[in-house]
Design a protein that fits this description.
Bound molecules: 2-acetamido-2-deoxy-beta-D-glucopyranose
Subcellular location: Endomembrane system
CATH architecture: Alpha-Beta Complex
Radius of gyration: 20 Å
CATH class: Alpha Beta
Order of helices and strands: HEHEHEHHHEEHEEHHEEHHHEEHH
Membrane topology: Single-pass type II membrane protein
CATH topology: Spore Coat Polysaccharide Biosynthesis Protein SpsA, Chain A
Family: Belongs to the glycosyltransferase 8 family.
GO molecular function, one term: glycosyltransferase activity
Organism: Tagetes erecta (African marigold)
Strand content: 5-15%
Amino acid sequence: MMNRCLNNAIVVLLLLSSPLICIGIRYFPVTGETAIQSRSDVLSGFTEAPEYRNGDSCSHDAIHVAMTIDLEYLRGSIAAVHSVLRHASCPENVFFHFIAAEFDPASPRDLTRLVRSTFTSLNFKVYIFREDTVINLISSSIRIALENPLNYARNYLGELLDPDVNRVIYLDSDIIIVDDIQKLWNITLQNNRVIGAPEYCHTNFTNYFTDSFWSDPVMSRVFGSGRKPCYFNTGVMVMDIEKWRKGNYRKRIENWMEVQRKKRIYELGSLPPFLLVFGGNIEPIDHRWNQHGLGGDNVKGSCRSLHSGPVSLLHWSGKGKPWVRLDEKRACPLDHLWEPYDLYKRNQPLDV
Ligand SMILES: *[C@@H]1O[C@H](CO)[C@@H](O)[C@H](O)[C@H]1NC(C)=O
Ligand SMILES: *[C@@H]1O[C@H](CO)[C@@H](O)[C@H](O)[C@H]1NC(C)=O
């Protein structure tokens, strides 16, 4: 049974539909003829997913999941959705909120059509992320290194998502869930916390910020007075969007991006502002929900192994992506755990 409220509506929202002229600056490497060829190739290369059925004891309460969707990571996003539904005890209760970039080589309409034809009964919406709202806030030195402004979309979920969405699980596109997402959804955010994520307190936090940050007594005091900040990965977060909106966390993060624009206080793109605002004050979720770093480093061609302990979510963060390595016949051992979720069939060898 499907909840009436969760019908297959496709709503395309404009984030802050301001009259500002779109400056049209793009940072995607995909342009020109090759982009057009790969777009039609990719968009027509997926097979339909099997049907997913709710168990007997499912309520109609929706589980909201937000994820970005773009041509470059499309294969990852589709595999991630498939993995979520495949292992969910109540797959028909999962509602996906896809955030698409305004100028992606695959238009939001193309992406919507693709999701619809791949997952025929999926509850989802596609939202358009206006990149110009964030591009002006990204310091120029960081812009060059940025792969994708959609990395910043997670900061705008409060505005993007429907006002009646109070909680959301944010997931990167290079993940696979091999457990019931309901367990992650059910996590309690204690002590008024706004987000939950696995924390890594042995990581040296110093390295995420520059000397000019630590040598500034006012700024570095952010982490003073009893606050014990730990690294966390923003690719998997349970977010209380209601508290997020009320506490104006979008603005708090943007304030640090403003600081970064004037004075280089960190090297990475979208992660450090989250560490500045939330470090030491997140709900620590079991590490099984983000086995990260599996992307390793493309340049060195290094493969990673799993951390010890149980695994509910595999995350190919880092430069290498499993679909790329599999296609290039230089897969890492763990990439074969991703492979069964790949719904992109165009590249299947014909000689098998
Ligand atoms: C999640 O919480 C709901 C409502 O409290 C409960 O019915 C369900 O069994 C829980 N599911 C899991 C997997 O923890
Ligand atoms: C963390 O890194 C900084 C800078 O690289 C170093 O000075 C500091 O000793 C390190 N701290 C720990 C606890 O390893």
